Amino acid sequence: MYTEQRLLENPPVTLALSDCKDYLSKMPDNSIDAVITDPPYNIKYKYDAYSDNLPFHDYIQWQLEILGECTRIVKPGGSILYLNYPELASKLFWDASEQYALVPYEIITWIYHQHTGGKPFRKGTRLWLWWGVEREPDYIGEEALKGQYRNPTDKRIAKRIEQGLAPVDYDWWHYEQVKNVSKEKTAHRILSRGSPGL
Ligand SMILES: C[S@@+](CC[C@H](N)C(=O)[O-])C[C@H]1O[C@@H](n2cnc3c(N)ncnc32)[C@H](O)[C@@H]1O
After folding, report:
1. Which of 21, 67, 98, 130 is exposed most, by the fewest CB atoms within 10 A?
2. Does residue 152 lie within any of the structural domains?
């Protein structure tokens, strides 16, 4: 099944419903700036239309093929940001770097504080794998990674603020859960400040 829907004109946003490999295979080489993707994690999650339970090597092979297509369509100096569980992400980070023209740039740990209930030791961590295509990414979005000091009245910190300086984020991000029923619906700073046009 394939459908496409224009959601916004400015900035232009199109939503496509398709098997991602079919869709990627129709996209031209070196045609986009970045891929940001959150694939299934092969954890037997009960999706409506997809069985999330492949043999380990089949799953890794599938993900590598998708990452190969992503490498082909992203321009040199563009970025691929790929989310997965830590065990799978650590394998894919290096396997994909060896197979394709991908330069490992950063691994960002994404932490959920607590789950609302259920079994203990559910995964509260995901890793965002970040590669540059052919070279380190041209666009890092450093402005978006600047935060606010927690102790602005400290003399040394006050001086830094006066100088227009700001703290920068570490390589881990901590987000409380925001669900469809949550009151909080605001865009996170990382998105709203980092993406031109949003
Ligand atoms: C981890 S979830 C992503 C959730 C999403 N980030 C969100 O917050 O709603 C993985 C998604 O990939 C979709 N998916 C599974 N196989 C796919 C395929 N072959 N092509 C495109 N999407 C697929 C699943 O239906 C599911 O919605």
Report:
1. 98
2. no
The finding on whether 47 has its CB within 6 A of some atom of ligand 1 is: yes
Residue 118 tokens read as 């259920």
Closest residue to atom 1 of ligand 1, CA basis: 40
Q: Is any atom of ligand 1 closer than 6 Å to the C-beta of 62?
A: no
What are 88-121's pLDDT values in tens digits? 999 999 999 999 999 999 999 988 777 777 777 7
**Of all residues in the chain, what percent are helix, strand and coil, respectively (each to 5)?**
30, 30, 45
Question: What is the 33 CA–ligand 1 centroid distance (Å)?
Answer: 21
Number of domains in the chain: 1
Q: Is the CB of 65 under 6 A from ligand 1?
A: no
Does residue 72 form part of some domain?
yes
CATH for 69: 3.40.50.150
Give the mean pLDDT of 80-90: 96
Per-residue confidence band for 11, with pLDDT thresholds at 50, 70 and 90:
confident
Q: What is the pLDDT of residue 87?
A: 94
- How remote is the CA of residue 182 from the centroid of ligand 1, in Å? 21
Task: Scan for tokens 């999706």, then name that residue.
Answer: 47
Q: Which one-letter amino acid corresponds to residue 168?
A: V
Element (H, E) at 192: helix 189-194
Q: Is residue 179 part of a domain?
A: no
Indicate whether 33 pLDDT > 80: yes
